[in-house]
Amino acid sequence: MKTLQHDDKKLIEEVIRDCDICFIGMADTDGTPYVIPMNFGYQAGTLYLHSAQEGRSISILSRNPRLCVSFCSDRELLYQNEEVACSYRMRAKSVIAWGKVEYVEDFEAKVEALNIIMRQYSNREFKYGAPAVRNVKIWKVELEEVSCKEFAAPYKRN
Question: What is the pTM of this model?
Answer without folding.
Answer: 0.87
